Amino acid sequence: VLAIGESGKGKTRLLGTLAQAAPTVVLTADRRGLDTLAGMTFQQEPEIVLAEDWTDPWAIYDQIAKLAATHRYLALDDLGALQEVIERKLRGAPRDREEERMRSDRRTDMVRQSLMSGGRRLIMAQWGELDIAINSFLGELMALPYKAVFVTVLEDVREHPRTGLQQVYPGLVGGIRDDLMARFSLVINLFNAEIRDGQVAWVASCRPHPRLPNKTRYGVPRTWINPDGPRLLRHVMRKEGEADLETAEE
Predict the structure, then answer these.
(1) Burial of 87 (0-12, 13-18, 19+ CB in 10 A)
(2) Are 238 and 219 in contact (CB under 8 A)?
């Protein structure tokens, strides 16, 4: 399940409801997002894996792989933050023989000063490395034997190259921005909406929309008011009764 939405629209909250239902591993590269989880009540606290450094990414993978034996769901919050961690690592990597020969502390100072002055942009080869790194790591995570994998990502609004209309994309850089949705069976957009008499609710939708990347491979597309992880999984398993489905029009 891929959940796309602006900041504050309920992405981390949705992962929290998943963790309330069953043992869940939450992978995050930004500990600030954990504030939402800290305010929720769990029968069993989710296992938090922090990926704030990309020095040994496969140690992170091994930790998550071992937890698959005891945990039911895997949640990655959010993919854009993880991509930024990888990008920071690549920016600081040696780029030529002169940098390779520097003492590590001197190179670190040089890179830091360059970043602060607005320099040290990724070179062409590093853009390819970034795309390979995030794609391969995500692919390996999704292949682990968890019952379900939830991934959140911030939305980015850009002009569509053919239609010229404003289109919602995952807030990522590189080719993964356009390819990401194809890797998920359920892609939902999260937003707030007024449902009646000024009452505003959390809303998730996988209904087709010309400017949103929504989709479902599980029957009739739906809109959920105040969604939670278990309800989305019932949709995925096609065990959702009519009484559980929302009838609100978009």
Answers:
(1) buried
(2) yes
**Pairing between β-strand 166-170 and β-strand 148-159 as defined by DSSP bridges:** antiparallel
Q: Report yes or no: 11 and 191 within 8 Å, Cβ to Cβ.
A: no
| Separation CA 83–CA 180 (nearest Å) | 13
Tell me how far apart the alpha carbons of residues 29 and 79 are, in angstroms, rounded to a whole number. 8
Q: Percent of the chain scored above 90 by pLDDT?
A: 48
Q: Are 110 and 78 in contact (CB under 8 A)?
A: no
Hey, is 172 helix, strand or coil?
A: coil
pLDDT at 245 over 70: no
Q: What is the length of the chain?
A: 250
Separation CA 19–CA 8 (nearest Å): 19
pLDDT, tens digit, for every residue of 138-182? 999 999 999 999 999 999 998 877 788 889 999 998 889 989 999
Query: What does pTM read for this prediction?
Result: 0.85
